[in-house]
Amino acid sequence: MTVQDNMVVQFHYTLKDENGDVLESNLGQDPIAYLHGNDNMMPGIENELEGKAVGDKLTVTPDPADTYGEVIEDAIQRVPVKHLMGAKVWKPGMAAIVHTDQGQRQVTVVKVGKFMADIDINHPLAGRTLTFELEVAGVREATDEEIAHGHAHGVGGHHHD
Q1: 10 CB-contact burial (10 Å; exposed 0-12 / middle 13-18 / buried 19+)
Q2: Which of 19, 44, 82, 150 maximizes the CB count within 10 A of its CB?
Q3: Is the pLDDT of residue 88 over 80?
Q4: Separation of alpha carbons 114 and 60, rounded Å
Q5: Which PANTHER family does UniProt cross-reference here (predicted)?
Q6: What is the pTM of this model?
Q7: What percent of the chain has pLDDT over 90?
Q8: How many whole angstroms separate alpha carbon 134 and alpha carbon 91?
């Protein structure tokens, strides 16, 4: 069975920076799961996994526009400090999570006051040429419910409360 639209794909990954240093990895943990062809995965990864099968391993270096996006200049927004998640005390340069209309977004704190913070809404890895080592761990037909919801359920996927 190969990766194609409306299939649930599970994979392990190791993300490396421009120097080959590991930034993150899920090796030895549950794989990530996503519903292929439903805008649930970075285009640079999804395109490379198309047609692959369980056990396939590949190393890809997609264009930054197809991973975390290009850097948007002057992408500073002011938000209430209480909307920043991930730490109790904030300092410039720290990564934070904020909720947006499109879901959670990782941002960088630029300046912080008592009640308000200026954040850079670019993802901290935006504009960088990164290398992903991928291994397909599972491929299966999506359920009708997963297709209706637009995302994978179960291990590595979305969990409903």
Answers
A1: buried
A2: 44
A3: yes
A4: 43
A5: FKBP-TYPE PEPTIDYL-PROLYL CIS-TRANS ISOMERASE SLYD (PTHR47861)
A6: 0.82
A7: 83
A8: 34
User: From the centroid of its chain, how far is CA 121?
Assistant: 15
Provide the pairing of β-strand 95-100 with 57-60. unpaired
Tracing tokens 């879901």 back to the chain, one arrives at 103
Domains of the chain are 7-68+128-149 (3.10.50.40), 76-120 (2.40.10.330)
The CA distance from 22 to 69, in Å, is 19
pLDDT at 155: 72
**Which tokens go with 141?**
């037909």
Q: Which residues contact 124 (CB under 8 A, 6 or more apart)?
A: 68, 95, 106, 108
- Asked whether 7 and 1 are in contact (CB, 8 A), the reply is yes
Instruction: Give the separation between CA 22 and CA 19, rounded to whole angstroms.
Output: 9
For residues 113-141, b (16+ Cβ closer than 10 Å) or e, as one string? eeeebebbbbbebbeeebebbbbbbbbee
Instruction: Please list the residues that pair with 111 across neighbouring strands.
Output: 118
